[in-house]
Design goal:
This protein has about 240 residues and is an alpha+beta fold. The protein has two domains: about 90 residues, no CATH class; about 110 residues, 3-Layer(aba) Sandwich (Aminopeptidase). Helix content is about 30%, strand content about 30%. It is built from seven helices and eleven strands. The protein has an eleven-stranded mixed beta sheet, with helices on both faces. Strand 1 and strand 2 form a beta hairpin. It is globular.
Length: about 240
């Protein structure tokens, strides 16, 4: 199931362009987010010469004017991480993939002031961009990435006294809902609003047929990890990026 979660996550946060090179997915999105601008070696191709395949990827990304970034998961060739280290690639963003096996008994959120839309709208995009400190260029790329999705999406904002305090995105594929761009306004953190946001997204997903959930979180984000632990998410595997 872990590899299926990896596929779900690639679909949920797409790229502007994807190339397939002998079983490796090369993703491009004008350099915004490593997730959408990295090489994902999740399928073993015919050519097992790692050095040749890496050099080919390096040439493609260099011609595109983008950094060369590999995503290292349990599904890549066993020696890839070591080969990249020998080629001078450093490690970035050790992250955790976590799952919640059942949405049956999730709590009912205590905060009821919220909006959830299945279409990307300016209010959500403006709120998310402000809370994350995105530049106008990043905001524009995000719009392009999310607008073209063929999956069911739930754009959620939680309010307190009409003030937006947290926002996030749920993406449903199969029986799973993935959580993305979960963020609480810096002025309202450590008050449980992130948990309330997630509960609203989970209940929305449950109402349209989802029965399980997954998320991706950077390992040094201790506040988020504590929140997810409270909601009974459990780590399934880790991943990181190799960057040259």
């Amino acid at each position: 199931m872990s590899k299926k979660i990896e596929e779900y996550s690639l679909n949920a946060w797409p790229a502007l362009q994807t190339l397939i090179q002998d079983g490796w997915l090369l993703r491009f999105a004008d350099g915004y987010t490593k997730r959408s601008n990295s090489i994902n070696a999740i399928y073993h191709g015919i050519d097992d010469n790692l050095d040749r395949k890496i050099m080919n990827c390096e040439q493609i990304y260099s011609r595109a004017g983008q950094d060369i970034i590999f995503k290292i998961t349990p599904f890549v060739p066993e020696s890839l991480d070591q080969v990249l280290e020998c080629r001078g690639y450093g490690v970035l963003d050790l992250s955790s993939v976590q799952t919640l096996d059942s949405l049956t008994d999730i709590k009912v959120p205590s905060i009821t002031e919220m909006e959830i839309s299945e279409c990307l709208n300016d209010k959500w995009l403006d709120t998310m961009s402000e809370m994350n400190g995105l530049s106008d260029r990043m905001k524009s790329v995000t719009r392009k990435l999310l607008t073209g999705s063929k999956l069911r999406q739930g754009y959620c904002i939680v309010y307190v006294n009409a003030v937006p305090v947290a926002c996030g995105l749920g993406v449903v594929e199969g029986d799973h809902v993935g959580l993305y761009d979960i963020v609480t306004d810096r002025h309202y953190r450590n008050k449980g609003y992130g948990e309330q946001l997630i509960l609203h997204i989970l209940h929305w997903a449950k109402s349209i047929g989802a029965t399980k959930s997954y998320l991706l979180v950077v390992k040094n984000n201790t506040a988020a990890i504590q929140c997810y632990k409270k909601l009974n998410y459990e780590e399934q595997y880790t991943y990181w990026y190799r960057h040259k």
